Records
---
Amino acid sequence: MSEPKSVTVTIYGQDYTLRGDADTAYVERVAALVDQKMREISQRSDLASTSKVAILAAVNLADDLLREQQKHQEALHLLEERTNQISAFLEREMDKL
């Protein structure tokens, strides 16, 4: 098992050292997304508190995640339905042979 890597990232003007197994570029992308979301919220609101901006960013990111998970589930359901239809069609056609 590999040793956890440390990556220093800047989020909303503050440096954080994160440790984990993820690739450095991936951790930097995650941090950039959080930073971007916090800056968007800060520009749209009068919030002075960094913690409130962070909480709203977390809520927004969680909402994005849940919406994407729902889309994914719907796509899987559609794929399963279509697969079942194709399978039934093939079985009917094979029975004709």
---
Amino acid sequence: MIYMKIDINIEELKNSNLGDMPHIWAEKYGDSIAIVDNNRTTYRDFDMKVTKLANIFIKAGLNKADKVIVQLPNSMFFILTCFALFKIGAIPILAVPGLREKEINNIIEFSEPSSYITTETYMGFNFEEMASNIKKDSLIINKLFIDRDLKYELRKNDNVEEIIEHREVMADEIALFILSGGTTRMPKLIPLKHCHLMRHIKLSAKRCKLGKNTVSLIILPLAHKLALYSPGVFATLSVGGRVVIKNNENLEDVFTVINREKVTVTIVVPSLVKMWLEIIENEENLSIHSLKKIISGGETLNNDIARQVEKKLNCDLIQLYGMSEGVCFTTSLNDGIDIRYSCQGKPLSLEDEFKIIDEKDNEVKYGESGELVFKGPYRFEGYLNIQNDNKDIFTEDGFFRTGDRAKVTNDGNIIIEGRIREQINVSGEKVMPSEVESYLREIEGIKDAAVIGIEDDISGERICAFILAESKAINKLFIYKKLDAMNIGKFKYPSQIEIIDSLPHTNIGKVNKKILKLIVSSK
């Protein structure tokens, strides 16, 4: 076990909540630019808009502790919406834009939100139509907000009002829900408290050396921990930096944005890093001199790619490993190159405990591999409304089971070696094979299916489905049409489909996925 001493003044956090932060930041940083998307918003303007939107929500009947699905593209309005909800004590449930009707309905059934906030259209998909259908068929959702209408109300309501109804929000109350990576058909919602998030924001800003001169480019979906607060938007704003928010409709012009806004740091997943390196390789005159740091998370970055980041992009690399359940490890800018290239670092908080255990929950020796488990000041207490699963995800002594295989170096850095569980990481989106298998088995003509993850140069991993077909009509086009009709996120679609006569099994009757991986690798 590795135990580290406390490193933060807990008294500072006892009366803190995220809803108060925009006003505190406005008093500190005033007319400095806070957020850049299609417009530029100062800290003072952002604080005023948060109060206006909070009042709009109160007038619409939102109450403290109401759960609200927020499914919006990357924009200043996403951040504005979150802080307005924090301010009135309502609780956002963050949903990535890639989720569709089936997944949203599962979330609604499981978490019972009163409201749903989304956009008109994005990436060619009509979210307003989907949300209207969901509300029409739902006995739970009673309010639907479209960002177009809320923006109109904000423009119409030019007078800054005090908050209509003061709602005391305590630091130990739930601030938001994030969907667990690798969520099954039963959604796993992670409750995050105000005090836990405040602590995390402060520590991540300190570890990544963010400050008033920081200009952070946010490309990853804001519904993810990395982009939102680890360190993301919240940590940058907390120190008076500038956030440049970009949606992923046109990634080709990202270097133009970096140069125009003089971006100093960005947060990416390895698949994006690889794409950037390829672009730099092919564009001799491309220059991004302002970029000083790249923070890579979401999956492990291999050593060769890590070396190329500092050499070809001419900036420092910070590797980050974390889960929304609470754990966060990062390398430090003070680490030597061997650590920065090959390790995922040390815990963010000096109060964290972690260890590596074997199959019997015994701690292993330094350098030996096993499952990484942790506990600490911002470890969550269990998924929403899932009692049985919550018993299995903690060890008897209270450590959270990450499901990741890791080892610890002699100097206390962790190296993540892969998953103990079957989760597939597709460009940072976590997909459980069992979920995709269940969808495939619903398709007429498919007798059985087994899904595995395969290493991919572009997306990190891709989904491969082995299909036991009862009909010759079963092919990729047929399967995609059926999945389209199920209204699930396209990132869950298998990119490779293998029709097979029979599925191999182990001696205890489970599908032998090791053999399936060998079949793919031999082709």
